[in-house]
Amino acid sequence: xxxxxxxxxxxxxxxxxxxxxxxxxxxxxxxxxxxxxxxxxxxxxxxxxxxxxxxxxxxxxxxxxxxxxxxxxxxxxxxxx
Length: 81
Hints:
This protein has 2 helices and 4 strands, in the order E-E-E-E-H-H. It is mainly β. A 4-stranded antiparallel sheet has the order 1-2-3-4, with no helix packed on it.
């Protein structure tokens, strides 16, 4: 429950995405079609993983050294800046 990011896959082959709880942008849903962000309520159906992630703390970028970006095997998650 300490992670602010949840990975998900759908029935489509090789279809993966993630949901991130951000302090500034609300929920961020990233998938092959693009990125969508914004405040969402628990009943808004924000995609797979949206309801469980609402209970978590927002991402604080691990104090400036994001662990998810450091260990992402495909470099799909990168630290901007």
